[in-house]
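Much of what follows relies on a compact textual record of a protein's fold. The record below shows the convention in full:
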Amino acid sequence: MTFFVYLPLLFSLVVAVVATRMARWLPPDLAARTATAGAAVSALTLTASLTMLSLTLFDDLPPLSAFDHRPELGLPKPVPGWLAAIAALVLLVGVGRVVLDLVRRTRLRRDLKAMGTSRAGIAVADVAEPFAVAVPGRPGHVLVTSGMLRLLDDRERRVLLAHERSHLIRHHHRLVAIAGCATAINPLLYPMPTLVAYLVERWADEDAAARTGDRELVAKTVAKASLATRGQRLVPAMGLHSSSAVDRVAAMAEPARQRRWGGIAGVAALTVAQVLATGLAVVEFVSDAGAWLGMVLG
């Protein structure tokens, strides 16, 4: 097999860097979708490459192993056995990490649902620690503690609800989960879960600002909630107070960013390149496998 099968690994090294830079210039909704798509494609293409490398282990098993030392047959040279074994191990570990990540998210959602009964889309938990979180489901709801309600005034509570409902309406949990699973299978994407989590919070901030018509109020509410929850025991995902509050407050002090489709060019180019490289690797793999199987069946 030629270098095409290894290209997804090389591209993964730069996807996160390019996505992080892209996020500085684009509105958060476009940046979040683009970063998630880039992470998903990187994970899928790497999985395909690892699978193809792993399958070459079969050439070490009878009857294929009988042709290993017969160069006169002109069979395509397989990948070294040690490399195929490493690929198989990495793939197995990655799948295990994905399963663990999904189990952790399922347990967190179950625990959050158990904290309060939803009425009209809102559940109030009698907990002194101030936090609020969007709990996805069918239907999803906003979970807020009595501590958070005491902390905020009426206008700030409207910001909080608009923010959390944005998470539910936009299905932000899906983007966060995709980024997490992509990184579980491809550790080279390690900055992506943090980046996507930050971007969906910024997205919800912008939705809250559009709903309330007051960017300064949103910034004040984010800062207030974040200061109150600093160092607390329980800080769930997708809450008003999470993910780089300082940067989010600073962003709300500026006008909303304009949509610049050219800003996604870097991630889009890498995504297309990964898909093309993987496609060429698949074609080559099928051709090589056909040659080996043809020798056995012939």
Strands lie at 122-125, 132-135, 141-145.
